[in-house]
Amino acid sequence: METAVRVQDVTQVYVTEERATLALQNITFELKKGEFVSFIGPSGCGKTTLLSIIAGLLPPTKGEVTVSNQLVRSPSTKVGYMLQQDYLFPWRTIADNASMGLEIAGMLTNESRQRSLYLLEEMGLLPFKDYYPAQLSGGMRQRVALVRTLAAEPELLLLDEPFSALDYQTKLQLEELVVETLRAKQKTAILVTHDIGEAIAMSDRIFVLAPNPGRVRQTFEIPAAIRAAVPLEARELPQFHRLFREIWQEFGGAGHGES
Which SUPFAM superfamilies match (predicted)? Predict the structure, then answer.
């Protein structure tokens, strides 16, 4: 299968007047087209730094990243980035917020705007297209943020704890929506999360990062039965609980359960 992302020997050092801090050390992995992987680990292991490098927002001190066989040197529409906060503009309607990424990238046309409206319809949000963000729930706002991210048709999606501020029921609903949407569109995705259960339920593989400096400590392949199930059903499978305990033990069982 085609390689979608290649991260080769990425190391990141932050330098201040007082000290140099090694944030990431020799991170290497490849993702196939359509693969969904998660990175989990304690605070300070460089998860968000890694996403910033892959997105082209931060040049690595050493190593390189390629997306669709093109070297990443700066942000591009090939990579979509969805954050914990939805960052919707309160003075713009939902339809206008959904097309904001297209507008910023200079890609807003009648055709691309129609595509964003179609995505809103897919997410069950078309009846709310003329509403404003304050009139929507947190879960609905995150769905708008997902539409905004998908509207530019990125080849890779980066998801930086996008569900962590939501209540548990809404989070499960969005997990299912994201997984099914990305599978249907054959999108490659990288999720960063503190939530082991979320990572298992959504992913094909999980990379566990160790801190100080951030480095890959362990990689887990998700069993086929879990991958075939939607996130809520996946959590009920015996394989899920066995894998959860195995990953939990990697952390010594401290502070990395389901939120």
Answer: P-loop containing nucleoside triphosphate hydrolases
